[in-house]
Amino acid sequence: MSSEAQHAEERVVDTATGAEAPAEISEERVQHIFSNIAKQYARFNAVSSFGLFKGWLRKTVDAANLTPESDLLDLAGGTGDVSYMAASRRPPAHIQLTDFVPEMLDVAREREAAGAACGVPIDFEVVDAQEIPYADNSYDAVTMAYGIRNIPDRMKALREVHRVLKPGGTFACLEFSTPPNAVWRFLYHIYLKVMIPFWGQVFTHDRPSFVYLADSIRAFPDQEHYAQMLRDAGFSDVSWKNYAGGIVAVHTGHK
After folding, report:
1. For 71-97, what is each residue's pLDDT tens digit?
2. For the chain, what is the HEC assignment?
C-alpha cells in the first residue's frame, strides 16, 4: 500500500462517508442509533439478512479458534450475538462482552438471565474499542461483528485489539463488505439504498438513522483494503472469507 493510501486508512473519519471528520460526529450518531434500536436489534438483523446472519455468526465463532481454556473478548458485542453463539457452539472459559452503547448491553444481560450463556461466565462492560481498558496480552481471542465500520479511528481500534491479544491469539471480525461481482454489487447497493431504510422505519420509525447505516456499508473499505489495515496494525496471517457473494466477510488475523 502506498504512503498516501495508508494515511487515508489511518484517518479519523465520518463513518457514513469515509471523509475526514471529528470523531464526535460518528460516536454521537452511533450512540443515538443503537440506543434506539437495542430492543429490536435481533429482529432487524433477522429480517434484513433474510435469516442468514446466524450462519455468519457461526462462521465468525469458528474462525476465532476457541478452546475450552480460551478467554474471549467480544468488542462491539451489542446484544450478545457473537458471545452467545460462542457459548453454545464453542464454549470458552470466560467471555468479556463489551459495547460502546449501554442500552445494547442491557439487552445482552437480559439474554444472559434467560440462559443464553449456557453456563459460560460472562462479564459486561461499556468499552470504547479505540481505548480498550485491559492489559496487554490479556485475551486468547477477540471477536467483533459489525463494529469496526462504526468506529471513526479504525486503525487505533485495530492496534488496541492487537495489543490486548495474547501471542498466538486470533482476531475474527465479521463485517459488511463489497461483493466482487459487479452485477451482484449493483443489486446489493440498491437493496442498501431502498430496503435498509425501509426496515429501519418499520422497526424504529427512524428512517434517517438507517440511511446512515446503508451509507456506512458502502463507504467501508473493501476486503483487500481492510485486510491491509489489519496487517498495518500488526496482525500476521491475515485472510478473509466471503459469504453471500461478498455481502459480508469474516477477516481473521493473528498475533
Report:
1. 999 999 999 999 999 999 999 999 999
2. CCHHHHHHHHCCECCCCCCECCHHHHHHHHHHHHHHHHHHHHHHHHHHCCCCHHHHHHHHHHHCCCCCCCEEEEECCCCCHHHHHHHHHCCCCEEEEEECCHHHHHHHHHHHHCCCCCCCCEEEEECCCCCCCCCCCCEEEEEEECCHHHCCCHHHHHHHHHHHEEEEEEEEEEEECCCCCHHHHHHHHHHHHHHHHHHHHHHHCCHHHHHHHHHHHHHCCCHHHHHHHHHHCCCEEEEEEEEHHHCEEEEEEEC
Work out the percent of the chain whose per-residue pLDDT is above 90: 71
Q: Is 172 annotated as a binding residue?
A: no
Is 106 known to sit in a ligand binding site? Answer: no
Report whether pLDDT(3) > 70.
no
Q: Check whether 79 is labelled as a binding-site residue.
A: yes
In this structure, CATH architecture of domain 3-254: 3-Layer(aba) Sandwich (3.40)
Residue labelled with grid coordinates 466482487: 180
Q: Which three cell numbers stand for residue 55?
A: 450462519
Residue 128 annotated in ligand binding:
yes
Domain ranges of the chain: 3-254
pLDDT tens profile 170-217 = 999 999 999 999 999 999 999 999 988 888 788 778 788 788 888 999
* Tens of pLDDT, residues 228-237: 999 999 999 9
